[in-house]
Specification:
Length: 201
């Protein structure tokens, strides 16, 4: 028969978010700032991400105090977004098991709103795809807009333009290492795809 040969130990694995993860005089990284559900198996990855972005935030606080508010806002917002996203993901996984197991362990952890799926534009028919490669004109979505947000650069956090659209989880400032706003501003109604490419290059 099985028997206990040592003390039973338990560790609290409850996800949490520190609302005061950064101020002008201190910063918290890793589990000190944010803990996510172990089910995600990405706690170490998230801890490394907070350390990397946290280093740039600290550099901003020390070297560019005029950008301190932007740096603090960026760090807090990024942690909040990560916490909300992981909580929703975890709740969805617990909800899937809860539908089969009907045990309180799964049902209590399945509470919470699932992530809303971003609207996906319909795929154009093949005939339209063919027109796009010729002289069809393009335009920016009327729902797209550029707004100033705290952005993480190579050395500092500074306010700068980013693209916001209902299909994006958060405003996007860079794409493939390129600043997105100047590219968006080059697109004019009536331009063809080839003209857009020439403008970008």
């Amino acid at each position: 028969n099985p028997r206990i040969v040592g003390r039973v130990l338990a560790a609290d694995a409850t996800p949490y978010l520190d609302d005061l993860s950064v101020t002008r005089t201190y910063i918290k990284v890793g589990d000190a700032a944010l803990a996510i559900d172990p089910l995600s198996s990405s706690g170490v990855q998230k801890a490394i991400q907070t350390a990397l972005s946290g280093a740039i935030v600290v550099n901003t606080l020390l070297s560019k105090p005029e950008c301190a508010d932007a740096a603090i806002r960026f760090y807090r917002d990024s942690l909040t977004q990560a916490s909300d996203r992981h909580r929703a993901w975890a709740a969805g996984h617990y909800r899937t098991v809860s539908a089969r197991e009907h045990a309180s362990f799964w049902s209590t952890r399945s509470a919470g709103q699932p992530l809303a799926a971003a609207p996906v534009p319909p795929r154009p028919p093949a005939s339209i795809s063919a027109q796009i490669t010729s002289n069809a004109s393009v335009q920016l979505s009327p729902d797209a807009e550029l707004l100033d947000v705290p952005r993480l650069g190579a050395e500092f956090v500074e306010l700068g333009p980013a693209l916001r659209h209902p299909a994006l989880d958060t405003p996007v400032a860079y794409l493939g290492g390129w600043e997105l706003a100047p590219l968006v501003r080059e697109v004019r109604e009536g331009m063809t795809p080839l003209q857009v490419v020439h403008a970008w290059s």
